[in-house]
Amino acid sequence: MNKELKREVDKRRTFGIISHPDAGKTTLTEKLLLYGGAIQMAGTVKSRKAARHATSDWMAMEQERGISVTSSVMKFEYNGYEINLLDTPGHQDFSEDTYRVLTAVDSGLLVIDVAKGVETQTLKLMDVCRLRSTPIITFINKLDRDGLDPFAVMADIEERLKIECVPLTWPIGMGSTFRGTWNILKHELHLFSATHGGKVQKGDIFKDINDPRLTDVLGEQVHQLREELALLEGAGTPFDLARYRKGEQTPVFFGSAINNFGVQEMLNSFVELAPPPQPRPTTTRDVSPYEDEFSGVVFKIQANMDKNHRDRIAFMRICSGKFTRGMKVKHHRVGKDFTIANATIFMAQDRTGIEEAFPGDIIGIHNHGTIKIGDTFTDKEPLKFIGIPNFSPEHFRRVQLKDPMKRKQLQKGLEQLAEEGAVQLFRPISNSDYILGAVGMLQFDVIVHRLLHEYAVNALYEPVSVTTARWIHSEDKRALDDFTDYYRSDLAIDAEGCLAYLAPNPWKLESAVERFPKILFSTTREIR
Ligand code: G4P
Question: So where does GTP get bound (predicted)?
């Protein structure tokens, strides 16, 4: 095995943060970057977010896009590890993008607000992680505030996220009585003291739970701590690395991101426990990151990074081999050679040109619309990575053209935007409508704006009686033909040419499922 490649793969950790808005993702990211030396003082990420928040309409958001893209992949070093943190847009209207980003990580960090427990957005994101058995580390945040009992939060996670919790640290008190955490694996106590200004904080360390000085420090709370630890030891399940790696068990850490408390303990365990880049499935075989031949897959496309050039950046995850600047690879979907001359790597502070990159790294490639989500690039072997899904849209609109002469441009615009993953496009088989499907409503505003500015097409939306979509498959051709005849007026072809049933309401979907048992109704479709 190539020694350099093995060394580089083994020290990489590529992960994403899963959380409901406001749980503390931005604050925690900032602290992680602080430990990585990527920012000198906390506050940088936060101010970016504030800038984004202040902008309510898409036009302004577009101006901010340079910033949001820089922060969408953050690479930093910590203790000899090379960490790629992939930002998962917190706004639920961009959750489709978030889902795809989660297909490019090897593990996830789940952030839970101790006062709120599991929230809706977390549930959805965990569903995506479960599809791929992504290993998850949990950080329960905001212990400096009053919240739910730690046992109750863990029970909530276990019940609703269907993952077993194993605390590796344990909180002492909460809110005004929060005194710190006990590290269960290392048997040491970290005392909490609120700090401000984002400086790295360690706190005092006690090595023994029976240290008599603990009573001086913790007072009566020491008894509660000893009791709870005994309870955990008696009733709790021990940590099992293999089960964590399979996504069945999650190690849990408690802390307060804003006070930078508990973050480093979590990070230290994260780099040790989280898996390095993993093998990835293709249509023909699994590709190991240690293989010499280069391979990579595009999981996200960001348009209009630079207004003057109308270009798009394709985010590629390197899956195997070594990337070097200017290397020539095969772009299998279009059957052409492609020279990656101007790849960008996303450092936490800014974007820089790169000379080389390894599996687990994300590189950005400029292109003019030739690259699609799901595209695979390799040295030679014609591979096709799988596992990047399209999710059934939750909102639908019919597109109406203000100027009928612009039909061609509209079609081109919608097709390109669909390829980019900005929206899903459905063409009914019984008429010439354009029906758009989105996971978040904001996607519709973005499309109208981009049609106007990039394709000079003035379009509007009108409501359409579709509540959900299912992709249709069947091994039985006869059943498929019968189904197609019966539901002709509700069927459409998506941007990839796949058949979809656009259900006018849930009852009709239910009756279709009952009526045609040989038809498979799928809520996700793999991007081809
Ligand atoms: P997000 O990216 O997940 O949406 O969350 P973000 O980090 O922005 O945090 C959401 C709010 O929670 C922020 O308050 C943040 O300061 C606060 N927060 C984060 N971690 C902690 C913590 O450990 N303890 C406490 N008490 N609060 C925490 P905000 O009022 O919305 O913003 P700001 O005015 O503080 O900037």
Answer: 19-26, 87-91, 141-144
Radius of gyration of the chain (CA): 25
Give the ipTM of the model, two decimals please: 0.97
Give the Cα separation of 232 and 218 in Å (integer): 20
Among 258, 261, 263, residue to substitute to test ligand 1 (most atoms within 8 Å of Cβ): 258
- Of 3.40.228.10, 3.30.1370.10, 3.40.50.300, 3.20.20.105, which CATH number belongs to 280-378? 3.40.50.300
Phi then psi for residue 511, to 5 deg, are -70, -35
Q: Assign residue 106 a region: left if phi > 0, alpha if psi is -120 to 50, beta otherwise?
A: alpha
pLDDT digits 0-9 by tens, 373-383: 889 999 999 99
The token pair that represents 343 in the structure block: 């790849």
Q: When comparing pLDDT for 117 and 73, which is higher?
A: 117
pLDDT tens readout for residues 378-421: 999 999 998 777 778 989 999 999 888 999 999 999 998 888 88
pLDDT interval class at 125 (50, 70, 90): confident
Which fold does the domain 15-62+106-273 belong to in CATH? Rossmann fold (3.40.50)
Please tell me whether 86 is known to bind a ligand: no
In short, whether 141's Cβ falls inside 6 Å of ligand 1 is yes
Q: What is the CATH number of domain 392-526?
A: 3.30.70.3280
For the chain, the structural domain boundaries read: 15-62+106-273, 280-378, 392-526
Q: Rounded to an integer, what distance in angstroms lies between the CA atom of residue 479 and that of residue 469?
A: 19
Distance CA 268, CA 358 (A): 22
First-residue to last-residue Cα distance in the chain: 32
